[in-house]
Amino acid sequence: MEKHLITFMPDNVSVAVREGTNLLAAAKQAGIDMSSPCGGRGTCGKCAVKVISGSYDSREDAHLSEDLKAQGLVLACKIKVRGPMTVEVPTQSRLTEHKVLLGSKRTRFTKENDFFATRKMNPICHRYCLRLDPPDLVDNQSDWDRLQNALRKQHGLKDATIAISCLQALPAAARLGNWDITVTVGTLLGVPKVLTVEPGHTTRPTYGLAVDIGTTTVVVALLDTATGRILDKAGTYNKQSVYGSDVISRIIYTDDHPEGLALLQKAVLDTLNELIDGLLAKNGIDPREIPVLVHGGNTVMTHLFLGIPATWLRLEPYAPAVTAPPVLRAKELELHINPDALVVTIPSVAAYVGGDITAGVLATQITRSEELTLFIDIGTNGELVLGNNDWLVTCACSAGPAFEGSGIACGMRAMEGAIDSLEIDRETLEAHCGTIGKIKPRGICGSGLICALSELKRAGIIDRAGKMLPHQNQRIRLGSEGMEYVLVWADESGSKQDIVITEGDIKNLLRAKGAILAGIRTMLNLVQLEMQDIARVYIAGGFGNYLNISDSVRIGLLPDLPREKFEYVGNSCIQGAMTVLLSQEGLAESLDLANRMTYLELSNGNQFMDEFISALFIPHTDLNLFPSLQTECPGSAQALRGEQEGDAERPTGAGGPPPSSQES
Ligand code: FES
After folding, report:
1. Which CATH architecture has domain 124-199?
2. Which DSSP state fits 86?
3. Mind listing the pLDDT tens digit for each residue in 76-95?
4. Using a 6 Å CB cutoff, which residues line ligand 1?
């Protein structure tokens, strides 16, 4: 079939593609990562490009805003190449560097040495210098027997096994080192395995990698596992993002394309391998020196990373293929480390409570305290864990993609140019916005949306049900989607368009925050406790780390508790992965935690739905649950409930899979 040259500007990169190729796919081939939250299904309207010249077929751009159409933009995913083309990709259609949460912030893990205060240092992989007994005509037992004897006698390691590559290297290494050898041994659940063999005695450090495979970002930490020192970290956005911004879009992509699963697995492996290559090159470490990698992620990410079909995770009864996958070898995944390196997966609990949550519970040590603790990880899905040293309950509530900026008129992810904080003047109703990277605003991200909701309510622009109140102010106007408030005028915005928040956006936000609070209340009801009984709240995850606690309480997303009870724990997934890397007991503990967590399926019964309806107001229909806000929210809660019940809607897939940006 004929090929055509497509040139992307302003990068000025070209790629030859077959007649009929989708333009979004061509951009990907050219190495241009475009924003495509819906995975190219034409429903998100984010892949807008300007065709400067060339021939193409285009299908209808129903999801492209009128403004962008007027500027001559078209959706790349709706275009089929019919001849040579030159295309301009505007900044707002690109995946720019995501704000990647590499580590922790204000946690008990901020000092690396804290690990030693609570756990015994006992890394999965350890390097041993051994002296083997040289053979002679009287003692001519095998080299491997000699190595096993030395491990047992010199280091108490019994019943060791060995990788075939080490067995192949052993005879020469033993003789070259004059029977002094150094081995790296990986011990999993008490079973030691020799992973590397080299002649002589070496004092080089032993390294390991801890990995967080998130839907949006992937983060890798490089550790010296003998000392527990974190040598370096790196993170970037997950290359799977071009197939859809959320887990459901990506599962659908694998279902709709015969090669979809392989492509998604390759995308995340490429992301991880590039990060590993960069980290090892920067630190002058040979890839063969990495004998172990521990990773955590949500259940869908773990399935896709391992190449396991995720289809059934989004279908009732939401059964995963596996929660505790076996330990793999790096060569089975073509990871750029020692081919025999152990690849350890932190176990999941259920389809929507993954290894990242198990890792977070491990890292925050909830089970080491009698205090009632709530662990929250907010993203497209809100994953919650409640418990103490005695018991643990967990659930996943479908917050929807609003906090990720999806389904919001001017929503965007937490990238440069995203409004992440704002204030509204109570007198003039003028907005003052702060952005990531302190550049001109291009849109608004989750933390900005929470702030906006709180400020709109406090400034009297919306009522408790999220409806805009009448005002004589040019910022409050009737837009194409209904009433809206203008946060930033076009001449001050990086997108050259007004940045607005609409009543529809507010409705989506109320549903998202309502689902989280309803999840918390449903878990508390199960154990017959109240919000005031919670002694500590850990907020995890990339989004959670930038939440303004006061605003989150004001809108009724978080329980009304003294601020000192809240603690940001940052990327607790990578903290948990590091814990497992440095402690053989940590791996056993993670398996035990995943088994111990009682999973509450919220789609069973009506309780979650009742709580959800009550939580669709700012902050809630029952103001007694938010005592510190009662002076801010006068009025009869009962009257409000009666007035608004008709408006309440079921959250998409409550307790089941999170809604997808495709469905928004
Ligand atoms: Fe093209 Fe979503 S509309 S990727």
Report:
1. Roll (3.10)
2. E
3. 999 999 999 999 998 878 87
4. 24, 36, 38, 40, 42-47, 63, 75, 77
